[in-house]
Specification:
Shape: globular
Helix content: under 10%
Order of helices and strands: EEEEEEEEEEEEEEEEEEHEEEH
Mean pLDDT: 88
Strand content: over 45%
Strand order of the largest sheet: 1-2-6-5-4-3
Structural class: mainly beta
Largest sheet: 6 strands, mixed
Length: 303
């Protein structure tokens, strides 16, 4: 849980299954600004914490002292970290921040005897905190960043309402789609050539990678508002008393979320393809979306 505090506790189940008790463990973040984002690694042996201190804390467990210690990635981050995501290999991490940059760092820890393999992201073995690649969005804070299921591609969304994708085979070429809508806050991959973004448009939106272009697909929120039905005299009176109007006109949106989407997460996947994902919003709603149902409901949808 990321909170506006400088002393953290991480809780784990201790003892046998019958007791099922949670014991707090101290986390030594060593930051002097608020924590803004947190994400567990794929192997769950470490987690990353972004903060307003212009650094990224990579935390790992010290069994001898029963606490979590952190190592810092500082340079060249120049502003608050808004998002981060782990590569599937567990040893690389992508970071988005308010300095309009998206960066990929090495997170291999000698304390955990990590032995990462070389790849397009890391051509040669690099020590912890090494900046591997940096992308300049130039016109907006980076709100969301996500590696593809294979780890070969990286996508990020910015405050300028753009969707950006890069392939590790050619890190100098960024595929960019500047949308006409409001800023996006989060991004996930459905598979290697399709991704879903969400933000201030209040609904998830599909984008497809076609060649070297990121192409708009469709809005994934189908309006299921029921027609007719009328309103009883008592219900009409209550509406007038509570809202000064006899209907919901102007007070309720046609989208499932009634405010901006803050986070998207894949909740079920098979063979590198997402089958289900969730969205959480500023309206307090948590919505689960079935990909197959969306594909069958929306006409001409290509996922």
């Amino acid at each position: 849980n990321a909170e506006y505090g400088k002393q953290w506790y991480q809780r784990r189940v201790r003892g046998n299954a019958e007791e099922n008790k949670w014991k707090p463990s101290l986390v030594l973040l060593r930051i002097d600004r608020a924590a803004t984002y947190i994400r567990w690694s794929p192997k769950e042996d470490r987690f990353a914490v972004g903060s307003g201190a212009r650094l990224l804390s990579i935390c790992y467990y010290d069994e001898e002292h029963d606490w979590w210690v952190s190592k810092h990635v500082k340079k060249p981050i120049r502003s608050t970290i808004l998002c981060c995501d782990w590569h599937p290999n567990n040893y690389l991490i992508a970071v988005g921040s308010c300095d309009f940059k998206c960066r990929v760092f090495s997170s291999a820890l000698k304390e955990l005897e990590d032995k990462p393999e070389t790849s397009g992201w890391m051509p040669k073995l690099s020590k912890f905190g090494t900046l591997l690649v940096e992308f300049d969005t130039s016109e907006g804070w980076v709100h969301g960043v996500k590696f593809s299921p294979s780890g070969d591609k990286l996508a990020w969304v910015s405050h300028d309402a753009s969707v950006n994708v890069v392939d590790m085979g050619n890190l100098t070429k960024v595929y960019r789609c500047l949308t006409t809508g409001l800023p996006l806050s989060s991004v996930i991959w459905l598979h290697e050539s399709s991704l879903v973004c969400g933000g201030h448009e209040n609904c998830p939106v599909l984008y497809n990678i076609v060649g070297e272009n990121v192409v708009y697909g469709a809005k994934l929120d189908v309006n299921t508002k029921k027609a007719g039905g009328g309103m009883s005299a008592m219900a009409r009176f209550r509406q007038l008393d509570d809202k000064g109007t006899d209907g919901d006109k102007g007070t309720k949106l046609t989208t499932t979320h009634q405010n901006a989407i803050s986070e998207l997460r894949v909740t079920k996947a098979e063979g590198g393809r997402a089958k289900q994902f969730s969205s959480s919003g500023v309206d307090g709603r948590l919505v689960v979306w079935e990909v197959d149902v969306l594909a069958a409901t929306i006409n001409e949808l290509n996922i």
